[in-house]
Amino acid sequence: MLSAKEVLSKDRVGKKVEVRGWIYRTRSSGGIVFAVLRDATGIVQVTIKKGNVPEDQFAAATKAGIESSVIIAGEVAEDKRAPGGYEIRASKFLVVGDSEAFPITEYQSTELLLDLRHLWIRSREQTAISRIKASLLRGAREWYHENDYVEVTPPIITGVAPEGSTTLFQVKYYDRIVYLSQSAQFYLESLIYSLERVWALTPSFRAEKSRTPRHLSEYWHMEMEAAWVDNEGNMKVQEELVTAMVRNALKECPDEFKLLKRDIRSLKKIEPPFERMSYDEAMEYLQKKGHEISWGSDLGAVEERTLTIDREIPLFVVNYPKELKPFYMKENPDDPRTYKNSDLLAPEGFGEIIGGSERETDNALIMERLKEKCEDTKSYEWYLDLRKYGSVPHSGFGLGMERIVTWVCKLDHIRDATPYPRTVARVYP
Ligand code: NSS
Fold it and tell me: pTM, whole model, 2 decimals?
């Protein structure tokens, strides 16, 4: 049994092959059926000629609808008109699973495609995106391994809210209310005292009421935490990691990028160091570009677009005002109105893909901030303990996997970066 991709080669011409997959397109004319077969590796054209296959198989081929699963044997021939330049001239055509009239045809509304997501994920675009995502993940996993990070498995059910209580999902947990994790950060922080460098890939949950093309209610969060690392060291990890991920995808997925019509020239240019711009400088730049904002304003999608639209390399914005960021970040001694933190903005207008910081080690400051935010300090006692027994400077960050996929694949909307997007409006299918 060969894959579709393996068939498309000069060496196969004149040879007998067998393939299996799903019918992607089909039409018949006179005594010939032209079917295009799709499998995990791509598509290949098959011609089934009356007389070359048993009569009942020819009848089955004329009737077989889109998405029927089939096994086909035949001889490979060159044909310039066929996708990929080769086709199989069938001598056997077996239907394994018939298909009813497939509900997805060429021009469909976004809503219908979301209702039929369980079928739409068979599309070649979604398949290419899944492969690129896997390749980005593999690039990251290898980078972490080569750099002595240990992969750990933090909990998803939790009592803490690192990113604030407004986006928490509550869960009934026996006789109490707990939360779905927004971030594994605090658990990763607890693990650096033994393992020093850790990372994790977990689902994170955000009750994001606003509908935007870059927010999901559930996303895959790749987080790292490391002892003895300051904010600058944290950014070095990010630029190396992102470069390794993008390079791996470029190496493994050239066909997928082509299928998505993603121009990869700018992706090829990505390498450390990425420019660092302070929040203050970002404000100045944005004001010059006509944005009506002042010191203390948050950077939203619109501002991040202005900052990155003319760039090909990601950009760090560092040292945000404290009121814009969570309580756990380290105060910036050079300007105590700000934190030692960074957001990494992807280029080409895309915007934030990573948030990271050095962590506050002063428990008195942490308590003060928690009280200011009216958080229930009792749930954080264990977190404060971490600073009581051998505290060390440490930093970490979180990378949104669907965000990086959206940028790398240049998708219009983050929902296409995951097979089953969860948003305010949707948990089906
Ligand atoms: O809220 S973050 O900016 N930061 C944290 O959660 C830290 N506790 C991470 C850490 O330091 N360990 O989220 C991190 C990233 C952010 O840059 C986005 O890329 C992504 O997580 N993110 C999201 N992706 C998709 N949908 C939503 N709603 C979302 N929120 C954050």
Answer: 0.97
d(CA 324, CA 278): 14
Nearest ligand 1 atom to the CA of 397 is 11
| Strand ranges across the sheet with 150-151 | 150-151, 197-205, 218-227, 394-400, 351-358, 341-346, 315-318, 275-278
- Distance from the alpha carbon of residue 200 to the mean position of ligand 1, in angstroms: 13
Pocket of ligand 1 (CB under 6 A): 162-163, 183, 185, 206, 208, 215-216, 219, 221, 223, 352-356, 396-400, 402-403
The secondary structure of residue 84, as a DSSP letter, is: G
Residue whose CA is at the smallest distance from ligand 1 atom 9? 398
Token duo for residue 386: 């971490």
φ/ψ of residue 404, rounded to 5: -70, -35
Q: How far is the CA of 216 from the centre of ligand 1 (A)?
A: 11
Domain boundaries, the chain: 4-97, 117-417
The architecture of the domain spanning 4-97 is Beta Barrel (2.40)
What is the residue-level pLDDT of the chain in tens, covering all 429 positions?
Answer: 999 999 999 999 999 999 999 999 999 998 999 999 999 999 999 999 999 999 999 999 999 999 999 999 999 999 999 999 999 999 999 999 999 999 999 889 999 999 999 999 999 999 999 999 999 999 999 999 999 999 999 999 999 999 988 999 999 999 999 999 999 999 999 999 999 999 999 999 999 888 899 999 999 999 999 999 999 999 999 999 999 999 999 999 999 999 999 999 999 999 999 999 999 999 999 999 999 999 999 999 999 999 999 999 999 999 999 999 999 999 999 999 999 999 999 999 999 999 999 999 999 999 999 999 888 889 899 999 999 999 999 999 999 999 999 999 999 999 999 999 999 999 999
Query: Which atom belonging to ligand 1 lies closest to the Cα atom of 224?
Result: 12
CATH code reported for the domain at 117-417: 3.30.930.10
Tell me how far the alpha carbon of residue 399 lies from the centroid of ligand 1, in angstroms.
6
